[in-house]
From TrEMBL, chain A:
One of its GO terms (cellular component) is plasma membrane. Residues 136-262 form the Rod shape-determining protein MreC beta-barrel core domain. It comes from the Bacteria. The keyword Zinc-finger does not apply. It comes from Altericroceibacterium endophyticum. The chain crosses the membrane at residues 20-42. This is Cell shape-determining protein MreC. One of its GO terms (biological process) is regulation of cell shape. Belongs to the MreC family. InterPro entries: Cell/Rod_1, Cell/Rod_MreC_2, MreC, MreC_beta-barrel_core. The keyword Membrane applies. Keywords: Cell shape, Membrane, Transmembrane, Transmembrane helix.
UniProtKB/TrEMBL annotation, chain B:
The keyword Transmembrane applies. It comes from Altericroceibacterium endophyticum. GO terms for cellular component: plasma membrane. Belongs to the MreD family. The lineage of its organism: Bacteria, Pseudomonadati, Pseudomonadota, Alphaproteobacteria, Sphingomonadales. This is Rod shape-determining protein MreD.
Length: 297, 185
């Protein structure tokens, strides 16, 4: 299709002027964009308020969508459940018997744990969840991995709080609005979580790789003891995440650690809980410069 | 006896011709609304571990610009980019810059090639979409690594294949935009 002729202004002074103004406006717009981009690369949180207000406005749409998402997943699960129902049933029955025994053992351990804690007079840290909410969406076309959560300031959510799904850690709160907030997912390339192997004390860092997997980097280098299938949980170092939240399973062994996949698939989670920061004093201490004394003004 | 006239005789693809006219609000708002709805894709009930969903707002804007030159003003990239930045997860300003630059690039190209076929438009859009996604990777706010680069390759391919589909949808919207719905007199 040919462009409309009105932009061929010819001798018409007014038309020529309006074409020129269009170019000037577009160039100024692009320049303003470049300045804003430089500003937000320098200070990533500079426009957080604007973003969270916009998210507050549209979050009801996302809530409806989230309901549809979990609904349809349920439907497909029901259909796939009929496939090989008999053998699956037998397998599940066997598993549940084992699980019952394990549950009884865990209960005994829990009781013993409580008794030992009483002996040592350790106070149970009050880890009541701050809020329970739905993940209402996620950035699906940017190479950054953020999710949007349907709870914000009003529910007591503040930045840095861990977000946990029943299957494991999802990420942490980045920005909060009144009724919604942005979550930095584990797989974002800026996310880093201190983890340890569930069965022993092998510590590592889990870095996001933006493709849904994590890169585990061992802190103590040497012979790499990780085996495929090892489960990693949060270690509690840094004070942000409480210890023992499941994070990832190692898939592929690399030279200095492993490539692991995240246990909590955000697409499959219905509700997530926002937990308080585990040791706020440790997080605050980490932000105090070395030269300054802790607790001092 | 006079046979009744064919009821479709006084109609065209935009509706009845007698007593009806185009609605100015509809004709001007549909392009803007469709692009802005494209920006709300992150709120769709899809949560993907990998960025595979094409940048729908950007592709829709390109399609409108190529299908109907002159309908979107040259500065339209600023408001479209601003809204896209609020939800896309990219640092604020990257959308404003890249959307504006894309529109300016098409304008410059149009001066060189005023008459084009659809395949030339598709080629233009392919180059611009690829450049846009690479710039997004570069300006994502994280340190650009090769893993993210391999992740966006499927996204680029999907976007290129999706462009004709979206161009088709835009032409359907364009027909809807020009429906004669306003009653005259």
């Amino acid at each position: 299709m040919a462009p409309p002729t009105f932009r061929r202004s010819g001798l018409n002074k007014k038309a020529r002027f309006s074409v020129f103004t269009g170019y000037v406006a577009a160039a100024i717009g692009a320049m303003a964009g470049a300045i804003l981009l430089a500003l937000s690369l320098w200070r990533p949180q500079a426009f957080a308020d604007l973003r969270s207000q916009a998210l507050d406005i549209v979050s009801p749409v996302g809530e409806a969508g989230a309901e549809a998402r979990t609904g349809t997943r349920g439907f497909f699960d029901v259909v796939s459940g009929y496939y090989r129902a008999g053998s699956k049933n037998a397998e599940l029955r066997r598993e549940i018997e084992i699980a019952r025994v394990r549950l009884a053992e865990a209960k005994a351990l829990e009781q013993e744990n409580r008794r030992l804690r009483a002996v040592l007079t350790i106070r149970d840290s009050d880890n009541k969840p701050v809020a329970v909410a739905r993940l209402i969406g996620a950035t699906s076309s940017s190479s950054r991995r953020f999710a949007y959560l349907g709870a914000g300031d009003k529910q007591g959510v503040t930045p840095e709080m861990p977000v946990v799904a029943p299957k494991g850690l999802v990420g942490r709160i980045l920005e909060t609005g009144t009724n919604s907030s942005r979550v930095l997912l584990l797989s974002d390339s800026e996310s880093m979580v201190p983890v340890r192997r569930a069965k022993d004390d092998l510590v590592a860092f889990a870095e996001g790789r933006a493709d849904g997997s994590l890169r585990l980097r061992l802190i103590n280098l040497g012979i790499n003891p990780i085996r495929p299938g090892d489960i990693f949980v949060t270690s509690g170092a840094g004070g942000l995440f409480r210890p023992g939240i499941a994070v990832a399973v190692a898939d592929e062994i690399t030279k200095d650690g492993a490539i692991a996949h995240v246990l909590s698939n955000p697409a499959a989670t219905d509700y997530v809980t926002v937990e308080p920061i585990w040791r706020p004093e440790a997080v605050n201490a980490a932000s105090v410069p070395v030269e300054q004394e802790l607790g001092g003004e | 006896m006079i046979s009744p006239i064919n009821p479709r005789a006084r109609q065209d693809r935009f509706g009845r011709k007698i007593n009806r006219d185009h609605s100015r609000i509809l004709a001007l708002s549909i392009p803007w609304l469709t692009v802005l709805i494209g920006s709300l894709v992150p709120l769709l009930p899809i949560i993907t571990p990998v960025p595979v969903v094409p940048p729908l707002a950007f592709i829709t804007m390109l399609a409108w610009r190529l299908v109907r030159p002159g309908l979107l003003p040259l500065w339209a990239g600023v408001p479209f980019g601003l809204v896209d930045d609020l939800f896309s997860g990219q640092p604020f300003g990257s959308g404003i810059l890249l959307f504006s630059l894309a529109l300016i690039a098409i304008e410059a190209l149009e001066m060189r090639f005023p008459w084009r076929s659809f395949f030339q438009d598709w080629l233009t859009a392919s180059v611009l979409i690829t450049a846009y996604l690479l710039c997004c990777w570069l300006f994502s706010g994280a340190i650009p690594g090769h893993v993210q680069l391999t992740v966006i390759v499927p996204q680029i391919l999907l976007s290129l294949v999706l462009f004709p589909v979206i161009a088709r949808m835009v032409s359907v919207f364009d027909r809807f935009r020009l429906m004669r719905v306003r009653r005259v007199g």
